[in-house]
Design a protein that fits this description.
By secondary structure, the protein is of the alpha/beta class. The protein has five domains: about 120 residues, no CATH class; about 50 residues, no CATH class; about 160 residues, 2-Layer Sandwich (Nucleotidyltransferase, domain 5); about 170 residues, no CATH class; about 70 residues, no CATH class. About 50% of the residues lie in helices and about 10% in strands. It is built from 27 helices and eight strands. Strand 5 and strand 6 form a beta hairpin. It is elongated and about 120 Å long.
């Protein structure tokens, strides 16, 4: 009789009685198949790889049968079974010892048996590895989850809706999981529900806010025009900026100032933004400027009539001359006052980045082209640079030559963005004059003279502060309206400081840049809102003001503004506590009360403490009145870059292959992509 020491140690208390565990045994026996030998060889029985073998002693074993004695029974009764099965032993434990808690024990197969099974390919079937489709087929995705995943894929990657009907795409999904893909019609209905939920969530958020700002612009693609609008606000608790796109609606006909005013007011009204918009930021287009000049009555607008405002090129229309000549003169006498009150627009801020772009392009070009010391070298150097860009962008051979000589590609500028023009000049000047002329020789272009190359380098040095300022003003998440004045002052200071190091070719350029900035931003420098916005930014406060007299003046402006916004708060506290009688306006002795004097004193203390100790935006929580001014004046953005980024996404949605997409569907897809953080897919 074989003595199994492991079985004695594991069954030291074999008679311990528990509840009926027949169900447990069946489950254990089913799972035991992973440890049993699939098909026993001629010399090793299946019993030796069984997890319950320690409850039996082997009595005898031959080539066909196996006889064992049950330890739990305690008698001399023996059980027999074939070598390739343990079914009789399982039945014995299930029937006789069903109330005993059995302990399964993993038993390793003998090494000789492992070697035999690996080499015995005739008597054993090879195991098949599970594939990914096999695994996912057993775990099918619910239909709702499938729609959510498809929505996220279509919206995030801006794929066409026809993707769900693509045979190859459906084949791919069907080979991964067994869930049925919705057809295009039902999937479109699902996207409509997602869009409605997103819109409802944005409206709920905007309803709770007191101050927001909007950016507006017009975009043309595939012979269609759209008016886009984004809304921005600052979370009063976290003091973090948030954004959302609220419109990219189709515009037909001419883009006249009254049409734009009508569209802007309609969008503001649809989101209940009337009275909440502190400013609307647009570019310098003449139609936008006129719309806000006529229909906005705010005294703090940065809009003013200029002779050099940009004309919109998309509002060309043809009129019937006969109809114009046949109009009754009396019908043209429209009351201007009635026209001006037709729409109610919020204050208007011109895009600071767009205005600064005009300084760097138009004003600088005007000065360099008229200056006798720089006119010739300016035209020659830029003409040679343009020839180099054109050659490299239109010929693959020339592009390879540029790569071979300079070890990098040239930057080809974009006509509408001065930043790209500046970056292109910088890339040219990063090469030595020898390399540059070697490249021009190989491309059969005119070479640069030493004077022209020096002019390009000085041009980049003088206009580098403008380039950095443009990048700052086009920011979004951490950029506020209070950034405008400190940025302009920093640009002027850095440009003026370069004068001693400039040659006669560009020494006048520094002064021209300063004069252009002060001229184009004249109304911004005098704007009280811009000044208060800069002071209430802890990063700047009064650091950007050099004159001590101006510092004192701006400090008094801050205190006065804080008093006007703290009075209501003090009155509310007094009414809730003491409920004093109202003042009589006709009272001859209309002196300030002690409470009012104390509140004014507290305002000055808060202002001084803020100016001396505030370092970060989070520190505004310690200054409630300053925080209120910060939210009021810094919610506005310096530029309209966000709505231009909306149009950049629109170009990825409205591709040439999808130019038949209806306007309503295009707007929904674009807004869902821009507002993906508000989606509840």
């Amino acid at each position: 009789m074989e003595n199994d020491s492991d079985s004695n140690s594991d069954s030291s208390n074999p008679g311990m009685m528990v509840e009926d565990n027949s169900t447990q045994l069946v489950r254990d026996f089913d799972s035991a198949s992973s440890t049993e030998v699939a098909k026993a060889g001629p010399r090793v029985a299946t019993f030796h790889g069984w997890m319950y073998k320690h409850y039996f002693h082997v009595v005898s074993e031959d080539s066909k049968n196996l006889r064992v004695r049950c330890i739990l029974c305690g008698g001399g009764k023996t059980l027999s079974s074939a070598r390739n099965t343990t079914s009789n032993f399982k039945k014995h434990l299930t029937a006789i010892h069903k109330n005993v808690k059995l302990v399964a024990k993993e038993v390793d197969k003998p090494e000789t048996e492992k070697r035999r099974q690996r080499s015995d390919t005739d008597d054993s079937e090879p195991k098949r590895q599970c594939t990914l489709p096999d695994v996912l087929a057993r775990n099918s995705i619910p239909a709702q989850k499938m729609r959510s995943l498809l929505s996220e894929y279509i919206i995030e990657d801006m794929q066409p809706l026809s993707t769900v009907e693509s045979p190859s795409f459906r084949k791919l999904i069907n080979n991964i999981c067994s869930t049925q893909i919705p057809d295009r019609k039902s999937f479109t209905l699902h996207l409509d529900k997602v869009y409605d939920l997103m819109l409802s969530k944005i409206k709920q958020i905007l309803e709770k806010l007191d101050v927001v700002c909007t950016t507006v612009d017009v975009w043309t693609a595939h012979h269609r025009s759209y008016l886009g609008m984004t809304v921005h606000w600052i979370d009063p608790q976290m003091l973090k900026r948030h954004k959302a796109a609220i419109a990219c609606t189709r515009m037909t006909g001419r883009h006249t100032y009254d049409v734009l005013a009508c569209k802007i007011e309609q969008i503001h009204t649809s989101y209940s933004l009337a009275g909440k918009v502190c400013a609307t930021i647009t570019d310098n287009g003449s139609n936008f400027v006129k719309a806000f000049t006529v229909f906005s009555d705010s005294a703090n607008c940065t809009t003013e009539e200029r002779e050099d405002v940009e004309e919109e090129g998309d509002d060309v229309a043809f009129e019937n001359v006969d109809e114009l000549l046949s109009v009754d003169p009396e019908e043209t006498n429209i009351d201007d006052d009635l026209t001006q009150v037709q729409y109610d627009l919020p204050p208007h801020y011109r895009c600071a980045a767009h205005t600064l772009n005009l300084v760097a392009s138009k004003d600088v070009d005007k000065f360099l082209s008229s200056s006798t010391t720089s006119k010739t070298v300016y035209r020659n150097s830029f003409a040679k640079s343009s020839a180099l860009w054109n050659k490299a962008s239109r010929s693959t051979v020339a592009s390879d030559t540029v790569q071979e000589v300079t070890k990098r590609k040239l930057i080809v500028p974009t006509a509408t963005r001065w930043n790209s023009y500046y970056d292109a000049i910088v890339r040219v000047t990063e090469n030595s004059l020898v390399e540059l002329n070697e490249l021009c020789t190989k491309l059969k272009l005119r070479c640069f003279s030493e004077r022209e190359f020096k002019f390009l380098k000085e041009y980049c040095v003088v206009l580098k502060p403008l380039s950095r300022g443009l990048d700052i003003l086009q920011g979004e998440d951490n950029c506020f309206f209070g950034t405008v004045l400190p940025t302009l002052e920093a640009i002027i200071k850095k440009v003026v400081a370069l004068r001693p190091d400039l040659s006669s070719m560009t020494i006048g350029l520094a002064g021209a840049v300063e004069d252009a900035i002060r001229d184009r931003f004249q109304k911004v420098f005098q704007n009280d809102n811009a000044i208060i916005a800069a002071i209430t930014l802890p990063k700047f406060k009064l650091k950007w003001v050099e004159s001590q007299s101006k510092k004192d003046l701006y400090k008094q402006m801050l205190i006065q503004e804080m008093r006007s916004h703290a009075t209501d708060e003090v009155v509310v506290v007094q009414k809730s506590q003491d409920q004093p009688t109202k003042k009589n306006k006709d009272d001859f002795y209309d002196f300030k009360s002690d409470e009012e004097s104390e509140s004014q004193s507290n305002v000055e203390i808060e202002a001084n403490d803020y100016l001396n100790n505030a370092k970060t935006i989070e520190s505004l929580h310690r200054y409630p009145v300053v925080k209120r001014l910060f939210l009021l004046y810094n919610t506005a953005l310096p530029s309209s870059a966000p709505v231009e980024r909306l149009f950049s996404l629109g170009g990825l949605v409205l591709t040439p292959k999808r130019n038949r997409l209806i306007d309503d569907r295009f707007e929904k897809l674009l807004l869902m992509r821009y507002n993906k953080d508000f989606l509840h897919i």
